[in-house]
Amino acid sequence: MKIKVVIDEKSGVCGGVSRAIRMIEDKMNSVGTDNIYVNGELLHNRLEMERLMDCGLKVEEDVQKIKEGIIFVRTHGVAKKILENAVQNDNEVIDATCPKVSKSQNIIEEYFNKDYQIIIVGKENHPEVQGLLGFCNYEGICVMKESDINRIDLKKRSLIIAQTTVATSLFERFINMISEKIKDLEIAMTICPFVEKREEELIQFAKEYSVIIFIGGKNSSNTKVMFEKLSQYNVRSYLIENRNEIDYSWFRENDVVGISGSASTPIWQIKEIKNVIVEYFKNK
Question: Which domains does the chain have, with CATH numbers?
Answer without folding.
Answer: 4-12+194-281 (3.40.1010.20), 15-98 (3.40.50.11270), 100-191 (3.40.1010.20)
